[in-house]
Amino acid sequence: MQILPHYNKNKINSNSQIKNREINFNGLMRLDPKTYAPLDSWFFRDYTTLKTATDEIKNSFPQGAEILDYACSNGEETISLKALLPDTKYKITGFDTSESALKLANRGVYTVFSHWYDSFLLPNTYPKSKEAHLKNSFYNIMEETFPAPQDRLINNKKAYFDIKKSIPEFLEKFFCINSEHKNSIDIRRGNISNLDKYRTSNPIGAVFFRNALYQMIGNDLNESIEQRKTTEFIYNKKDIINNFVDKLYSKLDKGGVFVIGDHIKDHLFLADKNTPDDEIIFFKDTPFFNPENKFHRQASYLRLFKESPLRIALEKDKKFKAVGFSKTWLDIGGTKVKVPTVWKILK
Ligand SMILES: C[S@@+](CC[C@H](N)C(=O)[O-])C[C@H]1O[C@@H](n2cnc3c(N)ncnc32)[C@H](O)[C@@H]1O
What we know:
single chain, 347 residues, alpha/beta, 30% helix, binds S-adenosylmethionine
């Protein structure tokens, strides 16, 4: 994996650049040391989607609701949701399966980077930023901290030192939840497969499961394309997804939303061994394909689901309707394609 080109692409040099850019954030790569599953997350990731989802929640549940943030990793997503829904009537719980992510959540130390997309959040860095309200919502629950040396080692050190070498002014700043909000962020072990077993007397207003479904169903799309790995067809993606959507439908309250990620792996799915030919499309025939890219050309005949099985399951019997969208692409040079990320239950 080439780290530097990716980070150079995200570098911010000036105020005018930030003013003309859509708000966006990024983070350093992090892997689970046991499973090697990606754990990376960052504050306000896919802000467009978070904004639409939290506005929907406020509209549908003015009296308050419970929000289940599955696959929250070490908690940047849960904290971002709390920042956008600060009222205590919205009870937000983060869940993750990774021991390593939960350990980090327990430490409660987070980073924001200067000269980076998330510079939006640093005090005085871009004071005229049109996103000042976001910064205010962040500082409502977070404060800068100066952690002990062992708590500073929370990022991918190779990524950090590589970028620091190329951009010497690049800085990590450390943050923690302020004392007023410490008890309002609850992060625990939890697997979304057990969603049906979650018990509460409150209405469930939202289930988040962003950029993680691919881990549950083995949708190793980038790996198949970038590293030309032969995929093990051991999953039956359709069955797993259908089963999951049934649980989701029975748990979510009227007016509630289900939120997925803006990563391509939540939207474009590798076919399984037993997927019939009439449900298949070759990669070269999808809007994501870029013929100029060598990896894309090598993967021209990769077999994919013509329609996202998740989308089909959600739309079946008019269970859910897409109400929020984002853009995604295969980030080794593909075209950006609009995809649904916020789904509203129709009950
Ligand atoms: C790439 S991170 C995404 C984090 C965050 N949702 C985001 O979009 O920034 C994927 C996370 O999903 C978690 N995960 C994978 N399968 C899960 C499951 N079945 N239930 C709960 N968490 C899961 C992983 O441990 C990891 O922390």
